[in-house]
Amino acid sequence: MIAGKVIFIVALIMQIIIRYPYRKRVDYSKSDRQERFLLLLITIGGVVIPFIYIFSGWLAFADYRLPGWLVGVGAVIMAGGLWLFWRAHTDLGHNWSSTLEIQAQHTLVTTGVYRRIRHPMYSAMWLMILAQPFLLTNWLAGFCGLVTFGAMYFLRVPKEEALMLQTFGDPYRQYMAQTGRIFPTGGFR
Ligand code: SAH
């Protein structure tokens, strides 16, 4: 369905625009191999395979059909994800990085969308990844993002929280006690 593909591409462009003011030079050679592998993996699942699906007929064998209103549901989920993605970038400011690192002037953010959720940017990414199978009606292109982002989320978050604890100590421990990872209610801790 063409509308879903167009919405997916527009959303990708919006993510780039939201992120653009916070871009920085990252020396990826300093990240560990797992981190580099995970970043490559989410690019494949979130961009490369979707683009192969959108711009070639190669994956057509794995297409499925959805009623139009479900594509609309996907668009709404995507819009919610983009909103949270934007808010999280605004609140995290210069502390944002595509990889796990502590900036020279890193501050612990505990306000805005970070007040009740420790990883609102990952909550936003879960929403956008969840929208993908509604927008790209193809078993491979729709679901590859869930697999690759899921791997990155579950492997990265424990490391990220360990890094934050090591850097900020008790204030982060306290912050963990009053927040949930991706849900404000603390679902999945
Ligand atoms: N996991 C967060 C941030 C993702 S960006 C989220 O989903 O919203 C990744 C960078 O953010 C890492 O380098 C990490 O050190 C930093 N970070 C994570 N939580 C933070 C917080 N509460 N305050 C400041 N920096 C944070």
Provide tags for this entry.
189 residues, mainly alpha, globular, binds S-adenosyl-L-homocysteine
List the helices and strands and how they pair.
Elements lengths: L1 H18 L13 H23 L12 H25 L27 H16 L3 H30 L1 H8 L12
Helix pairs in contact: 1-3, 2-5, 3-4, 4-5
The protein binds S-adenosyl-L-homocysteine.
The site of S-adenosyl-L-homocysteine has 18 residues, from helix 3, helix 4 and helix 5.
A few lines on this structure:
By secondary structure, the chain is an all-alpha fold.
What report would you give on this structure?
By secondary structure, the chain is mainly α. It has helices at 2-19, 33-55, 68-92, 120-135, 139-168, 170-177. α4 packs antiparallel against α5 (139-168). It starts with a helix and ends in a 12-residue tail after the last helix. Residues 88, 92, 95-97, 100-102, 108-109, 114, 119-122, 160, 163-164 line the site of S-adenosyl-L-homocysteine.
Oligomer: single chain
Low-confidence stretches: none
Structural category: mainly alpha
* Alpha-carbon distance between the two ends: 37 Å
Query: Could you describe the largest sheet, including whether it forms a barrel?
Result: none
Name the average pLDDT. Answer: 95
Cα Rg: 17 Å
